[in-house]
Description:
Layout: E1 2-6, H1 13-21, E2 34-39, H2 43-52, E3 56-58, E4 61-66, E5 91-98, H3 109-140, H4 147-161, H5 170-173, E6 189-195, H6 207-212, E7 214-218, H7 220-227, H8 231-240, H9 247-258, E8 261-266, E9 271-278, H10 283-290, H11 292-296, E10 298-305, H12 306-312, H13 315-320, E11 325-327, E12 337-343
Parallel strand pairs: 1-4, 1-5, 3-9, 5-6, 6-7
Antiparallel strand pairs: 2-4, 8-9, 10-11, 10-12
Amino acid sequence: MKLGIIGLSGSGKTTIFEALTHNYQDVQNKTENRIGTIQVPDARVDRLSEMYRPKKTIFAQVEYFLPAGGHRKKEKNQEEQAWNEIRDCHALIHVLRNFQVYGFEAPSPMEDFETLDQEMMFADLLSVEKRLERIEQEQKRGKKPNPEEVALLLQCKHHLENETPLRRFDELAGAHLLRGYAFVTAKPMLVLINNTDEDNHPPDALKDLFQREDCLVIRGKLEQELGQMSMEEAEDFLAEFDITSSAMDRVIQRSYRLLGLISFFTVGEDEVRAWTINSGTLALDAAGAIHTDIKKGFIRAEVLSYDDLMAAGNYNEAKKRGTVRLEGKTYEVKDGDIINFRFNV
Ligand SMILES: Nc1nc2c(ncn2[C@@H]2O[C@H](COP(=O)(O)OP(=O)(O)OP(=O)(O)O)[C@@H](O)[C@H]2O)c(=O)[nH]1
Ligand SMILES: [Mg+2]
């Protein structure tokens, strides 16, 4: 699952990408896409690993993608193709500059947000119109259109013309028939307000934005520097700036949720592992996420919630307390379930 980092030129995309992925480049090469896979910090996995002392501990992962063409200036560049590089991303991170930098105008994060969001809506509108035109032409040649698809496209057109991004409409954004279009405004989005080092409060001017969008205030430069330090240096640094932990951990956790992902765990002496599934996944498909054989030979899922395990102190005690349940194929797996699949091959 991939998150694309977008934002106007100089907003801090590269800085944040590096802070997230710890993948640094001395000389920025803006003609190359950059991608980084990183672990999703999860205190539950840490705790389970302490409990089981396994040979291996495996965290969930997400990918961040920094498109080469991302360094767009403020002038409008509304073509559809301009957005093609992020079409296969599952969600977006929109970086807003809220710091002063030499050679740039005073920060105007709200305006910047609108600039890029409108550009994205325009790109989607172009795709919708093109498709509708083609359907009309095909109809003239005797091909029957899919009325459901046309209805959905018309709804999209209406919203986009009213300058409302498609991510506001869950059903439309998730519609199966529209999936192929990969509309950019239909993707879930996290807005990162990139503040100065001194300040980590949301600016007043962004109050509205905070209500409308999923927002987080960060200090990109500080985080990037933090990421390059040794443990001890980092501790001093955190104390100096009066922060308890890297905000990047929160960004990563929010990213994971933004993608609609949850984790279930498998535990044992060999391995403690977080498995990634979409929220709403049933036990049978969760089994398939581990191995097709486990899905094929599925008998039962032995399920214990992380919280119940912690309350009991260990697995056997949880069993005695009756909190270990046997669930069937259609059980909906919850975030934090510890599962032992019973299967035969
Ligand atoms: N003060 C301050 N400066 C920052 C912060 N984040 C980034 N910068 C600086 O702002 C400048 C632009 O940051 P980049 O990360 O290169 O921005 P970008 O979005 O990748 O820019 P383009 O690649 O041109 O699109 C750099 O000089 C950074 O050091 C921040 O949180 N605070
Ligand atoms: Mg850059």
